[in-house]
Amino acid sequence: MATSDRSPLRTVVALVSALGLGGGGLAVGFVLASLAAAVLTFGLGIEISPAAVIVLSLVFVQGVGCAGVAFAYLELRPTVGPKIRSLLGFEGVPGPFDIDADLPDLRAVAVVVGGYVLALGGAFAGSILVTLLQVDTGTNQAAEIGMENPEVLLILIPASILIIGPGEELLFRGVVQGRLREVLGPVAGILLASSVFAGLHWFALTGGSAAGNFVALGILVGPSLVFGAAYELTDNIVVPSLIHGIYNATLFTLLYVVVAFGDQIPDPQNATSAVLALL
Questions:
Q1: Long-range contacts for 204-209 (Cβ within 8 Å, ≥24 apart)?
Q2: Does any domain span residue 1?
Q3: 29-58 residue pLDDT tens
Q4: Residues paired with residue 205 on neighbouring β-strands, in sequence order
Q5: Per the structure, how many domains does the chain have?
Q6: Which H or E run contains 205?
Q7: TM spans, by residue (predicted)?
Q8: Is 134 a member of any domain?
Q9: What residue spans of the chain are helical by DSSP H?
Q10: Cβ neighbourhood burial of 264 (10 Å; 0-12, 13-18, 19+)
């Protein structure tokens, strides 16, 4: 990880670039997924199933968009970065910027377990808060598709660990948090990256009131802080990727159980609402 190098202009540039990288990664993935869907539908005449929609999203948003933009940043920064610094009149050369990925040791495994418990506990506390406030929160689009097509959730459960966690963590912890950290320090880097990550989930929500969706995004900041702190503690992107992936997989598993076995649950409507609040 890079070290703090703060000045007003550097701070503004770091904030703009972090937001642009995070939002840009998701936007690139969304555009590519939409183009792929259009080619399949209108070009080849293939009817896209709900499962195919999820697969396209996983491949292009989390895969190409998030991970691709992260790797592109690492590749282009050594050549593009000096030109931008020269244009802005920045003096000095920043430290090396990299994203370490290693097989977790025992300490890292302990961070994964502890982080998972904290993230999930925070999510359940947030679900209780939503119930107490009685606000109308939106539904995550992937969860909405999964409720209507439970087989999609069986794709999302392993994909959470294999694609969603690694892809999103590479971009938001590895690049966005790392970029903020080198200018603002670790605490501000974690806080701001978590806020950017949670805030961009606004576009993944359907329905709900504005106030309810703000509450939902506020709750998402909690697990995001856990992911960011885990990365800061270990300097190993594998650790937050595992926490994030297992966390998501747990929520999709709970939703699958509620949807698939709702007739055996005493109050399926409330159970479904509780799980959706976590997502």
A1: 204/140, 204/141, 204/142, 205/137, 205/138, 205/139, 205/140, 205/141, 206/138, 206/139, 206/141, 206/144, 207/136, 207/138, 207/139, 208/136, 208/137, 208/138, 208/139, 209/135, 209/136, 209/137
A2: no
A3: 999 999 999 999 998 888 889 889 999 999
A4: 140
A5: 1
A6: strand 205-206
A7: 12-45, 51-74, 108-132, 152-171, 183-204, 210-230, 242-262
A8: yes
A9: 8-38, 50-57, 68-88, 106-133, 141-148, 150-159, 165-169, 178-184, 186-200, 210-234, 238-260, 268-278
A10: exposed
Tell me which residue of 97, 92, 85, 95 sits closest to 9, measured CA to CA: 85
Gap between the Cα atoms of 170 and 153, Å rounded: 23
**Is position 151 within any domain?**
yes
Model pLDDT for residues 227-278, shown as the tens digit of each residue:
999 999 999 999 999 999 999 999 999 889 888 776 655 544 555 555 555 5
Round to whole Å and give the CA distance between 110 and 59. 30
pLDDT above 70 coverage of the chain, percent: 91
Scanning the structure block, which residue is given the tokens 């370490």?
A: 100
Residue 99 has which token pair? 């994203």
Return the structure tokens found at 160: 């959470």
